[in-house]
Amino acid sequence: MAEYKTKEQKRKFYDSQHWKQLRVKVKQRDNYECQECKRKGRVTIDTNEYSESAKRKKIMLVVDHIKEIEDHPALAFDEDNLQTLCVNCHNKKHGRYVDYSLWQKSTKWNDEWW
Ligand SMILES: [Zn+2]
Ligand SMILES: [Zn+2]
Question: HNH nuclease domain: from which residue to which, for each copy (predicted)?
Fold first, then answer.
């Protein structure tokens, strides 16, 4: 059983071809909409996926593990354990604050991001 406890193990996971294909699939399944916003009756889509002009909005989506892979490694590739979230909801879920303007410029690795 694979483990995703260390930063290195997680990096390997998020760098994997399998994950990259899966997150595309999940975003398609979720119509490029944030599922958490959707539950609240809002629609937040990944404008980056569409037009050049919409890029200004910079709404980014991540594919989130509903149950963290650290605690549930068996669910790492389980589509039922995956949901599309916008960065705002994702950060709220994980209780962290990230400065996106900084992130844009840095190449620093951030778990579920790419
Ligand atoms: Zn959201
Ligand atoms: Zn997450």
Answer: 21-91
Q: Give the range of the structural domain holding residue 63, as residue numbers without chain letter.
A: 25-98
Within 10 A of 60 (CB to CB), how many other CB atoms are there? 20
Q: What is the dihedral of CA 84, 88, 91, 97, to 10 degrees?
A: 160
What is Dmax (Cα atoms) for the chain? Answer: 45
Higher pLDDT, 49 or 18: 18
- Find the 73 Cα to ligand 2 centroid distance in Å: 14
In a domain, 47, yes or no: yes
Ligand 2 centroid – CA 27 distance (Å): 14
Length of the chain: 114
| 37-52 tens-digit pLDDT | 999 887 766 655 555 5
Ion ligand 1 residue ranges (Cβ < 5 Å): 34, 36-37, 44, 86, 89
Q: Does residue 2 form part of some domain?
A: no
